[in-house]
Fold these 2 entries.
Entry 1:
Amino acid sequence: SAVISQKPSRDICQRGTSLTIQCQVDSQVTMMFWYRQQPGQSLTLIATANQGSEATYESGFVIDKFPISRPNLTFSTLTVSNMSPEDSSIYLCSVRGRRNQETQYFGPGTRLLVL
Amino acid sequence: AQSVTQLGSHVSVSEGALVLLRCNYSSSVPPYLFWYVQYPNQGLQLLLKYTSAATLVKGINGFEAEFKKSETSFHLTKPSAHMSDAAEYFCAVRSVYSGGGADGLTFGKGTHLIIQP
């Protein structure tokens, strides 16, 4: 399985500011995803991070609010822009491996609180 | 489009008793199905997966699940609950096909498993 790390692990931010979350994988992967888990809720897919091209966003999520970069096969960033308290969530990076493409593995998550 | 329904947001069982967490899915294409566990303040850990091979799949920590196409179900069981099993459990579905926006997982709302001593 892939080992995924995220930075920061948690943060407290002021409304109106932006936070960039980093996701690093220990091996090259075909697909990377970003999910959001709001307090007490399930996980919702934000977007698929595509290497070398724009991310593919799910309904209800837009690039201006959640810009994503994926410069190579092991790294991606998600920015939460112009934050409001409603953005307080856990943001999780997820990958599908090159070998085992059936399974998605998840990072430890970034716990964000917006005041 | 795909969806997952987990019956029971909270399930309470006694230590040593059978654990049964229910998951029903809806998918217009053949599915891959997964169970993940989330311990407090931690990320998601894969428990087990169904990927078109054996319909009864065994996972970690003594859990298993059976894919029943006729019932569109993928219920999670464990013969004897342990205190360490207390956690949030998520069922998820994905299409066997890739591309066209069908690559991500669709999750159920989760079931909080409580183990009574």
Note: The two ends of chain A are 36 Å apart (CA to CA).
Entry 2:
Amino acid sequence: EIVLTQSPGTLSLSPGERATLSCRAGQSVSGSYLAWYQQKPGQAPRLLIYDASNRATGVPDRFSGSGSGTDFTLTISRLEHEDFAVYYCQRYASSSWTFGQGTRIEIK
Amino acid sequence: QVQLVQSGAAIKKPGASVKISCKASGYTFRSHVIHWVRQVPGQRPEWMGWSNPANGNRYYSQRFQDRVTITTDTSASTGYLDLRSLSPEDTAVYYCARRDSRGEHFDGWGQGTSVIVSS
């Protein structure tokens, strides 16, 4: 099973600032099956990015994803109030779907 | 629009079973595999398994394969998660999720079903 490690655990930022979230896979896997989700309290995760860099339908263009192999990044160019939440990366490999432990973006 | 509506919260005793439903609407049910993911509050989501409505095929995480059954009923556009031999460690929110046909990710989620296991 692929282990995903996200960093940092918590980001303290102000609205308008840039957020950079990291997701590292324990081993390289072929294919770009890396997704990012946003989760707010009491809600289900919401798909933001799939295949490392493709924005899901309806996701604002301030969200972008990049990376390949073992290192992936989610960037939020200018934080809006509704972006303060927990973000998870998710990877598929060998018939298993794995999530990272999450990065919380909190208001500074 | 895509909607997945799950059954309500459950409180179970250790050793019992729980069955959660997930009714889909807004798309062709047979066209998308239904997965189940659970999340202990404050922890990362954990994938449990999937069922393909198109052919009835299923696949489970090794962690749960001895006590989970995931099914789909195409006539009702509904997926089901059946988890047996519950323990307090199974206390979590359980989500159904629709696999996107474009890849190995989930583009639609149910609202979640809270399951509490306590004596």
Note: Chain A has no helices and eleven strands.
